[in-house]
Recover the amino acids of this structure.
């Protein structure tokens, strides 16, 4: 089987914490306690837990990412 490497892309991401206002794309989760949010995605509503990163993908889509996964797969770009 052939092996492939993901193409590097630049994303925008913001880490969200409980008590902060919802980020763009987050909506109140009617099935959980007040203050918890979800992000509607093509795969369904994804829960945004405190500390999760909210990522904007290459097509403008939003999705949450757990901190340990974000730390393993993403790094800050130093801008000039």
């Amino acid at each position: 089987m052939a092996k492939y490497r993901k193409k590097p892309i630049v994303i925008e991401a913001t880490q969200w914490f409980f008590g902060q206002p919802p980020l763009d794309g987050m909506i109140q989760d009617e099935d959980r306690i007040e203050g918890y949010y979800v992000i509607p995605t093509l795969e369904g509503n994804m829960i945004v837990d405190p500390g999760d990163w909210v990522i904007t993908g290459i097509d403008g889509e939003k999705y949450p990412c757990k901190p340990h996964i974000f730390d393993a797969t993403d790094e800050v770009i130093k801008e000039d």
Notes: The longest strand covers residues 37-41.
